[in-house]
């Protein structure tokens, strides 16, 4: 009997046979009293034309009960009364009256940005209480508005959502989250929907980038303290801790690092310079992100200290002495004095 049968529907049964005649033959039929779904109807439509029908009293639902059985008793009118019993088994045929139902209203998944193509992100599941082809489910995937270039595909039979391509994290703010809509559809055309929320997890795969914006390669040795020597910025295309960058410079140099704003830094003089002690510096700037393990990069600032005339000439000896014969001619060499200057270039040229 189809489960869509309306109450009042009738289903014929074969009548009971009794070899007696008259009042001794079959007079009444009855049904098991514990049965709430069916009753029996019987009578005569003409001479020698009796009928027996099972009448549906209550709507059926195959998903609640797919089979039921009850007894039909035929009783004659003799004395004593005699009866016969038969068992009636009802098999309820399925109708496509149930849509697929997802196990969750919203599925939440995470995916690493560097997962390869074909990786399974998550699996959705829908069930259908119908039987046979009415319970066969296929899945379809659609992407939210503004995300037409889908990076995901769903297996129509298993419900596995997979990557169609590696995710590009260059535009992290735009593609940090994906919202998908999954449809489960049975063979009878009934369907339901569920949302899938996928968060892309950043992988620390970008090295911090140092961009030197300006640098004074030649610095006078009388440069005041706090003078800006170089300005640079750092950027990391990762997100979260993976994109948080810390900068430092070599501690052995007379310079210090100051943060201007956001990701901009400047290198300033922290001590007075002296070209006569150190004439060149190679200042290493390092940038390291907060990933685990951390990625880092470096840049070298080659600085040359320019001379200032801050040193007087110095004689090799404080006192010179010589002996000179009185009859020497004019122009005779008496002695040679020598002075040196620690400065450089024109500032180091000594005249006597």
Automatic annotation (TrEMBL):
- An example Gene Ontology biological process: homophilic cell adhesion via plasma membrane adhesion molecules
Topology in the lipid bilayer? Single-pass type I membrane protein
Q: Where in the cell does this protein reside?
A: Cell membrane
The main place the protein resides is membrane
> Which UniProt key words apply to this protein?
Calcium, Cell adhesion, Cell membrane, Glycoprotein, Membrane, Repeat, Signal, Transmembrane, Transmembrane helix
Listed under GO cellular component are:
plasma membrane
Any one Gene Ontology molecular-function term assigned to this protein's record? calcium ion binding
**Residue stretches making up the Cadherin domain:** 1-102, 103-210, 218-315, 316-352
Q: Which SUPFAM superfamilies match?
A: Cadherin-like (SSF49313)
Task: Please identify the protein, giving its name as recorded.
Answer: PCDBF protein
User: Lineage, please?
Assistant: Eukaryota, Metazoa, Chordata, Craniata, Vertebrata
Q: Which gene encodes it?
A: Pcdhb15
């Amino acid at each position: 009997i189809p489960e869509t049968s309306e109450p009042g529907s009738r289903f014929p049964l074969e009548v009971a046979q009794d070899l007696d005649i008259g009042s001794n033959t079959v007079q009444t039929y009855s049904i098991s009293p514990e049965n709430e779904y069916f009753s029996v109807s019987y009578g005569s439509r003409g001479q020698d034309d009796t009928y027996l029908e099972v009448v549906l009293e209550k709507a059926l639902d195959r998903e609640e009960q797919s089979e039921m059985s009850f007894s039909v008793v035929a009783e004659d009118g003799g004395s004593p009364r005699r009866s016969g019993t038969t068992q009636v088994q009802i098999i309820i045929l399925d109708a496509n009256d149930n849509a697929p139902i997802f196990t969750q209203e919203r599925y939440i998944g995470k995916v690493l940005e560097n997962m390869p193509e074909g990786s399974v992100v998550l699996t959705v599941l829908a069930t259908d209480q119908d039987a046979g082809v009415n319970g066969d489910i296929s899945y379809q995937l659609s992407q939210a508005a503004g995300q037409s270039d889908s990076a995901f595909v769903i297996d129509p039979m298993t419900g596995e959502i997979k990557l169609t391509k590696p995710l590009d994290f260059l535009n992290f703010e735009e593609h940090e989250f994906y919202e998908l809509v999954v449809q489960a559809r049975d063979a009878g055309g009934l369907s339901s929907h569920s949302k899938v929320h996928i968060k892309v997890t950043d992988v620390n795969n970008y090295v911090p980038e140092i961009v030197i914006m300006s640098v004074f390669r030649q610095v006078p040795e009388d440069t005041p303290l706090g003078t800006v020597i170089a300005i640079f910025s750092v950027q990391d295309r990762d997100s979260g801790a993976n994109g948080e960058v810390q900068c430092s410079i070599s501690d052995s140099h007379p310079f210090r690092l100051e943060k201007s704003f956001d990701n901009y830094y400047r290198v300033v003089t922290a001590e007075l310079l002296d070209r006569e002690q150190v004439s060149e510096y190679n200042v290493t700037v390092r940038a390291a992100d907060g990933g685990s393990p951390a990625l880092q990069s470096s840049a070298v600032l080659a600085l040359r200290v320019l001379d200032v005339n801050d040193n007087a000439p110095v004689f090799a000896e404080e006192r010179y002495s010589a002996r000179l014969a009185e009859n020497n001619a004019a122009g005779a060499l008496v002695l040679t004095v020598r002075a040196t200057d620690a400065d450089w270039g024109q500032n180091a040229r000594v005249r006597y």
